[in-house]
């Protein structure tokens, strides 16, 4: 009475088909990543050397290294982080822990979603108008980083809100019922239990801005500068813009050079991501619930 | 606070208390007097309003936002719905224990001290030794000291459920509450845990007024001085526990405690 029927067979075949199809689709997804990495390593690998990382471009940017661009990107991302993290975390704390369910909260959430949808070139123009001209920062690291910060604020807020909301509601209720205020609850329970998630999530999101070109090219990133930035009011070279420049704007660049720049840029972003993921995994192991 | 403790007003008095969730009326004209330093059990079928009534006594219900209340609730002779009443002070005097133990993700020691630190005056320094004494006293009161004395720095969330529940009671005590509200405090525990926590509740009476919601008839019978039977948002009967279980006045009460209802 327990033998296979034709219907069972048919269902099993369909099952297998779908399973295979979905697997193939998933594999297709990682194909571009692998191809990109392979091509970059194959073509750009040869130019990589310590000299490449530690010297300035020479011969009209057709030779030499990428040091000013590398340092510039580190500046841009760091200052952007310094600006967007406090504001983003504060906004997320308000929205997650205080905001009542009303029209203002709904409007704020809607604004954040919309801000995330603004194209980066529009952010760039906003950055020129607001930071370069209105605040008179000029084209500088500060103006470029603030533009990046505005652009990343929505993702910082969303990542932070997710981390905050991962702290079980029961803990908050327990605190409130002992007479603790919202702030006491945040400071003693909510933040200590979500700070790791917040930091890693935020670093993960903001490190992606290392690759952004449009928002910085009008606000602070320079075509070529033979020196390193000394402060936030200097202009700077940046990896992403440098890649654009050596790929399309400069004649007689050896073929391997742009690939080398791209490879370093990707390695930077991946390294930041890997660090933050490792950090998160480590901290998750020590959760107290 | 001292003279209020001495004066002999009942611990909790509600007068024609009505409560609505939106348009749904959950409590109808509740007049209840809860005696001081006794255990009062509230029984009744699910949805009869006993938890709602319990939660009104430290005003947690209001957090839902769409709750409307008329009538009054006095705790220790003071109306807690007066406009000048500070919720933080209400919750200090009226502690609450929940169905599921909810220790905070801190050490056992920090859990016990949490409320005390929250209510401490700004800038007041309490020595480590004084804190140790507070912790020991509270844990002894809930019969947990001997079990956890060697691992006070350990995570509270790793204790057995029954121990967690005792800890949740212990952390209310350092701020010296007058009333402890308990919402089915044993329903997440196994029979042994239930027995241990019931014993503890019985042990705490005399020092605290305890109002406890339970679905467990045997528990109400074993571990309470007085018993309140509620049905459909109305208070049906309130007498001494031994009386209620031997000779209930109302037919509905008799039906319920004998299992013919709910």
Describe this structure in words.
The complex is a heterodimer of chains A (289) and B (262). Chain A has a single domain (53-284), classed as MetI-like fold (Orthogonal Bundle), CATH 1.10.3720.10. Helix content of chain A is 71%, strand content 1%. Chain A is built from twelve helices and two strands. Chain A has helices at residues 6-44, 50-54, 67-98, 103-116, 120-134, 141-165, 169-177, 182-190, 195-207, 214-217, 239-249, 256-284; strands at 57-58, 63-64. Chain B is α/β, with parallel strands linked by helices and 262 residues long. Chain B has a single domain, classed as Rossmann fold (3-Layer(aba) Sandwich), CATH 3.40.50. In chain B, 35% of the residues lie in helices and 24% in strands. Chain B is built from eleven helices and ten strands. In chain B, helix 7 (161-170) packs parallel to helix 8. The radius of gyration of chain B is 19 Å and the shape is globular. The N and C termini of chain B lie far apart (42 Å). The chains are: A mainly alpha (289), B alpha/beta (262). At the A-B interface, helix 7 and helix 8 of A face helix 3 and helix 4 of B.
Order of helices and strands of chain B: HEEEHEEHEHHHHEHEHEEHH
The appropriate CATH architecture of chain B is 3-Layer(aba) Sandwich
* Largest inter-chain contact set: A-B, 20 and 28 residues
Q: How many separate helices of chain B?
A: 11
Radius of gyration of chain B: 19 Å
- Counting DSSP H or I runs of 4 or more residues, the number of helices of chain A is 12
Instruction: Briefly note the CATH topology name of chain B.
Output: Rossmann fold
Which overall shape of chain B is indicated by the principal axes computed on the Cα atoms?
A: globular
As a percent range, the share of helical residues of chain B equals 25-40%
From the N-terminal CA to the C-terminal CA of chain B, the straight-line distance is 42 Å
What Rg of chain A do the Cα atoms give? 24 Å
Strand numbers in spatial order across the main sheet of chain B? 6-7-8-3-9-10
User: Tell me about the biggest sheet of chain A?
Assistant: 2 strands, antiparallel
Q: Name the CATH homologous superfamily of chain B.
A: P-loop containing nucleotide triphosphate hydrolases
């Amino acid at each position: 009475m327990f033998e296979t029927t034709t219907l069972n067979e048919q269902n099993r075949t369909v099952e297998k088909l779908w399973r295979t199809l979905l697997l193939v689709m998933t594999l297709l997804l990682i194909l571009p990543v692998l191809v990109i990495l392979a091509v970059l390593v194959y073509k750009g690998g040869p130019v990589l050397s310590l000299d490449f990382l530690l010297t300035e471009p020479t011969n009209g940017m057709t030779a030499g290294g990428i040091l000013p661009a590398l340092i510039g990107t580190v500046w841009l991302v760091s200052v952007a982080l310094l600006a967007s993290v406090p504001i983003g975390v504060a906004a997320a704390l308000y929205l997650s822990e205080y905001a009542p369910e009303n029209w203002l909260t709904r409007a704020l959430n809607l604004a954040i979603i919309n801000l995330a949808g603004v194209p980066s070139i529009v952010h760039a123009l906003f950055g020129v108008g607001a930071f370069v001209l209105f605040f008179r920062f000029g084209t500088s690291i500060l103006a470029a980083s603030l533009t990046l910060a505005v652009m990343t604020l929505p993702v910082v807020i969303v990542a932070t809100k997710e981390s905050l909301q991962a702290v079980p509601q029961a803990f908050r209720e327990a605190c409130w019922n002992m007479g603790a205020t919202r702030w006491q609850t945040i400071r003693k329970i909510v933040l200590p239990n979500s700070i790791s998630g917040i930091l890693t999530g935020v670093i993960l999101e903001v490190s992606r801005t290392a690759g952004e070109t449009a928002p910085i090219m009008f606000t602070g990133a320079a075509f070529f500068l033979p020196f390193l930035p000394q402060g936030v009011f200097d202009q700077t070279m940046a990896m992403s813009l440098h890649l654009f420049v050596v790929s399309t704007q400069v004649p007689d660049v050896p073929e391997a050079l742009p690939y080398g720049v791209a490879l370093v840029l990707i390695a930077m972003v991946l390294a930041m991501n890997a660090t933050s993921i490792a950090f998160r995994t480590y901290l998750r192991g020590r959760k107290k619930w | 606070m001292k003279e209020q403790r001495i004066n002999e007003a009942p611990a909790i008095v509600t007068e024609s208390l009505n409560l609505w969730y939106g348009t749904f009326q959950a409590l109808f004209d509740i007049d209840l007097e809860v005696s001081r330093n006794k255990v009062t059990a509230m029984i009744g079928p699910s949805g009869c309003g006993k938890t709602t009534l319990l939660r009104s006594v430290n005003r947690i219900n209001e957090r839902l936002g769409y709750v409307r209340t008329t009538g009054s609730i006095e705790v220790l002779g003071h109306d807690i719905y007066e406009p000048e009443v500070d919720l933080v002070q209400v919750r200090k005097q009226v502690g609450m224990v929940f169905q599921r133990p909810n220790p905070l993700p801190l050490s056992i020691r920090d859990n016990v001290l949490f409320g005390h630190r929250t209510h401490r005056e700004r800038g007041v320094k309490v020595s480590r030794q004084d804190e140790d004494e507070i912790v020991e006293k509270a844990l002894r009161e809930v019969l947990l000291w001997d079990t956890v004395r060697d691992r006070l720095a350990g995570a509270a969330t790793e204790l057995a459920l029954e121990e967690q529940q005792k800890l949740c009671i212990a952390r209310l005590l350092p701020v010296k509450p007058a009333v402890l509200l308990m919402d089915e405090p044993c329903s997440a525990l196994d029979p042994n845990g239930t027995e241990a926590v019931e014993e503890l509740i019985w042990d705490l009476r005399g020092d605290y007024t305890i109002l406890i919601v339970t679905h467990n008839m045997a528990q109400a019978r074993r571990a309470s001085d007085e018993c309140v039977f509620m049905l459909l948002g109305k208070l049906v009967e309130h007498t001494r526990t031994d009386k209620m279980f031997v000779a209930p006045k109302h037919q509905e009460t008799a039906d319920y405690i004998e299992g013919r209802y709910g």
